[in-house]
Amino acid sequence: MLFSVQDAKAGEHLQSQLDELASDPLLKGVDTERAVVEGEPPSAIAQGAIDHDIDLITVAMHGRNRLSLPFGSSMAEDIIAESPCAVLAVRPPQKDFVDGQSEIQLERVLLATNFRPSSVAATQLATQMANQLGAELHAVYVIGDYFDQISMMFPEGGLATHVAEGKPYQEIVKLADTLQADLIVLGTAVHGSLFGSSNVLGSEIERVLRNAPCPVLCVPAARVVTPLAALVTQTVPQT
What is the reported pTM? Predict the structure, then answer.
């Protein structure tokens, strides 16, 4: 568990919250290590993930005031843009793939791909997760006829392919809803902000995050990811 603090008083309050969280029955039997890091949350959390060799960061996304939209990314989106590892973004209320708070049940995984290098790691991870969990794997490319390319990426078959025309984020969100997907997996390429040196996501990725009917697993382009133990083998303890 990595958290960022900016002053001593906030740090004390956070330590209290961490103690309360660690005592939650849901974490019974789970090894936890608490780390409090200082600095701007996105950068500090990213550095903490590197320092502690973290494989997965989870973030909860909250609704935002309509008037705030033109002024930049939400904190969760900034964390995703800075992250050195995969990030699972959850925006309540969404369809959950944890069955009864007891175990992970992934039945349908939707991979959003653009056939660029930014999607390679996401493709690897989505394929490995689907194979190990016995989940249906659906791949979608918006705009264009790319069935041949999709077939080459998944020579063993077992993949449901979808090609849609329209705005990418809308088609991805709509297909995830139609399929009742448990998880969307997509590669995240970042670029520098026009207003500074900070990393920002593309607008289509941000819109998927804000509108997805299920959690979204964001896989950074520069990282080749092996199956995530947290999503493949680990059972969440019962309360």
Answer: 0.74
- Three-state DSSP state, 60: strand
- Per-position b or e across 172-199, b if 16+ CB within 10 A of its CB: bbbbbeebebbbbbbbbbbeeeeeeebb
Residue for token digits 């660690």?
22
- Give the CATH number of domain 55-232; options: 3.30.70.360, 3.40.50.620, 3.30.1330.60, 3.30.1380.10: 3.40.50.620
List the beta strands (DSSP E) in the chain. 2-5, 35-38, 56-60, 86-90, 98-99, 103-104, 108-112, 136-142, 159-164, 183-188, 190-192, 199-201, 216-220
* Domain assignments of the chain as residue spans, ordered by start: 1-39, 55-232
Distance between CA 221 and CA 139 in Å, rounded? 17
Q: Are strands 216-220 and 183-188 parallel, antiparallel or unpaired?
A: parallel
* Beta carbons of 138 and 181 less than 8 angstroms apart: yes
Angle at alpha carbon of residue 69, lines to 65 and 73, rounded to 5° = 110
pLDDT tens figures, 135-172: 999 998 875 444 445 545 554 555 677 877 778 889 99
Burial of residue 84 (number of CB atoms within 10 Å: 0-12, 13-18, 19+): middle
